[in-house]
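Protein 1 of 2
SEQ + STRUCT:
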Amino acid sequence: MPSISLADTIESLSLDDEWGPETVTSTTLDGVPYAPYSKGDKLGRMADWTQEGKDGRDGRGGRQFNRNYRDQQVYGAGTSSLFAVQVAEDESSFSVVDNTRASAKTRGFGRGGGTVFRGRGQRGAAQRGGRGAFQRVGQGRGAAQTGNQYYDNRGGRGGRGRRFGWKDYDKPQRNRDSSVNIRPEWSMKEEIDFNRLLKLNLETSEGEDIDSYGFLYYYDRSYDKTQTKMAERKLQSLERAAYNVTTSQDPIIQDLAEKDEATIFATSDILSMLMCATRSVYSWDIVILRHGNKIFLDKRIDSTIDLVTVNENAADAPLEAETGQGGTNQQSTGVKADSINTPSNLALEATIINHNVGLQTVIESDSARLDFPHPNPFYNPAEETEPLASKAYKYRRFDLSLEKDEEPLHLIVRTELDAVVKNNISGEDQFLTIKALNEFDHKAQGSGGALDWRTKLVSQRGAVVATEMKNNSCKLARWTTQAILAKADQMKLGFVSRANPKSNTSHVILGVVGYKPREFASQMNLGLSNGWGIVRTIVDLVRGLSGSEDKKYVLVKDPNKQLIRLYDVPLQTFEEGDDGSLGALAEKGDGKADEDEE
């Protein structure tokens, strides 16, 4: 059989024998080729030329495979480049410079690795630990831990879940009320945020004593040994005459102002609030009175500055019961209207506790007490029936001058001391300030993760104090500042708890711990130079606004933002309450104020 070669076969075929569509050299679209497509493609994908993304991925970030046949590549998926617009100029030489810092590694594996989950409501909650152990490093407000994951229950995803808790999505936004009603006739002169206040700095001397008034009882050292539950002491309610007079109604400050001893006058509780303003969360207000060339830092009657807050700086602070219509307040906040754990009720409870602890921890003896050169300036024995409380007032002067000042700028502050104690080694008298931290219910909302004081105060006292520093940063900073201003040798902190967590009428003293104010301030990262810088800035602002005219201003902390506002108010503002009016400076009264409620 003869063999047929391939060449003979091709030569025997003619063009007329070809099968298939007619071969054309151009299309009706002026040389633009058609995009190939498959019968399996959906109608909407035939002309979809935007599916191709970076690195051969589609617009959704997935690889270009058909949804129904993932092992088959979609026809025409790579043809969008055929229709790409060709730019006239070469842009390959252009580049964008990214000057942002390289982001930190967000996920690590192995021993000591950390995992960071970010939510919408916080900067980030980091966890770090060894094998199978996780420790909270920076948990944001509202973050909770479940297993080895952190979830942000304020919105935003952490790990695999978003919500933690019952109806956390339905929790209302925490809106607090201002401490004073902003009236329409008030004119806002300045608004300063906390970030600007934190950058201020002014170094001053330790101050000098001008005069001293009152007397002090000796401290009862037996309270330092209260360490076990068997040694708990019931907190008593003692009837003693105590005074908290504002600056402009103090007769001693009025005399010092007439003698031109200083330019600025204040009391330690008002001055400490201003110096620790950046740590505050709740709203407060200070009345600033410009009379001649003198500036007085005042407070209103029933001012929030006199109240002792509880867990103000906690991540989950106590909730105020709203007075909604139709009895809906419990559904909106989860706090009953008659709850004893609201911020206002807790502040009133803590204020009474602080008043009674200072009276109970001293030994009242007329023969063994320390008298100062002058008697109490606010006590009138002809009118008072209750005995005086152990209290000494030191009027001290600080220099706030700068090198550029033509005249010196001095501040006189009235400081307070609560007791005196003998030094064990030298036998010299040492001055004390006595304050009290109170525990309401470590299991209740707003406790801030506090430990049970009855079981942990002895074995884990450092952890208890560290938790209080976190939850009550503003309150402890104010107390420390007041002790340093008074030049106290020690600051006594009493730990008071409820006898029954469900009742706020009966309390017990678990123990008293002493600290040196300067050392305690370093533990809290508290620097007085920043506080003095805030005071000098506000004073310069007031002096620049008022000139030589008599003016009255109100400095208000915003209830929901980290900023303070200075308002120019009429001179008759708060005159009905007779607190800080010009008439109080012109007339010298006995300076007596209402006693603290017990």
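Protein 2 of 2
SEQ + STRUCT:
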Amino acid sequence: MVAPLSSWPWNNLGVYKYLLYGPLVAKVIYSSAWEQGKPDRWCLHVLVLCALRGLVHQLWCSFGNMLFLTRRRRVLGDGVDFRQIDKEWDWDNFLILQSFIGALVCYSFPSIRKLPLWDPKGVFIALLLHVWVSEPLFYWVHRAFHRGYLFTRYHSLHHSTPVPQSFTAGFATPLEHLFLCVVMGAPLLGACSLGTGSAGLVYGYVLLFDFLRCMGHSNVEVLPHGLFQALPVLRYLIYTPTYHSLHHMEKNSNFCLFMPLFDLLGGTINGKSWDLHKEINLGKNDEVPDFVFLAHVVDVFSSLHVPFVFRTFGSLPFSMKPFLSLLWPAAFIIMLLMWAWSKTFLISFYKLRGRVHQIWAVPRYGFQYFLPFARDGINDQIELAILRADKMGVKVLSLAALNKNEALNGGGTLFVSKHPDLRVRVVHGNTLTAAVILNEIPKDVKEVFLTGATSKLGRAIALYLCRKKIRVLMLTLSAERFQKIQKEAPPECQHYLVQVTKYQAAQNCETWIVGKWLSPLEQRCAPPGTHFHQFVVPPIIGFRRDCTYGNLAAMRLPQDVQGLGMCEYTMQRGVVHACHAGGVVHFLEGWTHHEVGAIDVDRIDVVWRAALKHGLTPV
């Protein structure tokens, strides 16, 4: 039987739970329209306070996920995975509960609705009540929640998330949040009952309460250790994220609300609190990644698809949402600032086989790669990222689609030639990309039509297929480039490569491999039932209802991947682009060669078998 007050009554409403704010909104509208003399503003205050409290939690979550700023000060080194994100999806349920409690209190005590804007005496009274009522009350009840029935039925839910973040502060059962209402409400009601309450006190105390709760759950140490060394008494007056994270790690210590003084009096201070705090301040908790995937932003909208903007949005495949339009101006301004700053930053990480894999991003957007004057600047940033990875001790760095553009840097050849002594292996991952595309093609196909035929991938695909005695219609206007590729094929297979110069040449071919963007008119040349395999960035738009369209080449990461909580652009959860997967395989195999420049056709099957061996699977 489910314990009472252990689940939220609106759990099954989904986003419709926000309609529960309707009565408060209706009261605000009614007061504004019909109470012209003295409109009742307290429902408006409750709604504004709820919005501000949600913003506090969101801003702390954004800060905690800005790994380029916080990675050296993280208390727990693990990433927040999809399971935790889904579990904490409705972290804001407590705001609905407490908004109604706040409105009920306001209308049960009319004097509260007439509070002045500010009264400094109330701050002193609230502080005293917080120290001598809220802090000890929370401490003893919190300890009770860690025993037997209460922990099993209620508090274990809060401790079920492995990596605390600000949203974890709100992730608890209704009973626990009712208790928090008492803890948070005691100083406010006490100040109001003594005639020293004010609207400013309510806003300030509630927001500061949430701020400190979010700070403790942020998993990022923000308080300098030197402060506690200079004033040792402070360590008992204000807790730190390290202090509270130890409570989540070991559970039976560090029970205080905000003041470790009560843990000291109760004998429950974790002995590692101050030593760990010092280690994290010195950056000793930072892990050097073994593998780095150097990504880039596609466009302004996709730049919002990162964990430090909205964690939940980043955990789903990218798609256009109405709220993105509202954020576009801010994202555009940040794009300009990043363009000026020009520094590669860390956006996500995960662990595979117990080794750290990081995703870095070059602050350049897709269109910028096609600006002639931006080429040198982009290459400089990629080069700096490679040198930084080499200095850190990274073993393999894999380049994302446009970062290895042939016209930009020869598929990474530029950097390897310029720095022949690199210890980090630079990988474009295109060998596995070719393998994924080739293994999608049905075994009984006798003829394919290939666009982008003289590109790096197109060349490898054509040479591989002709060896399998499959006729390849290679779309290219350059007879010289075609002949160069044809000469690379075994003499007995060269006749399987056929140059064509028009799309109409493929009007009877139902297998198209697309390496160049196709307009609707060009797609019309394909016969009904055609399947479009593709390796073009951005992917083509499916205009034909009588044809099918494949996704960009991708692979699913092994089942034992840990801490992955971000979808890679439009890919499903746990799925990464084939070039990303190619770098992972390169690292797992321990290969010591650079994979840059032209694709070695002889290695396509080798890389494919290695990927399957390590648990990567085709999508």
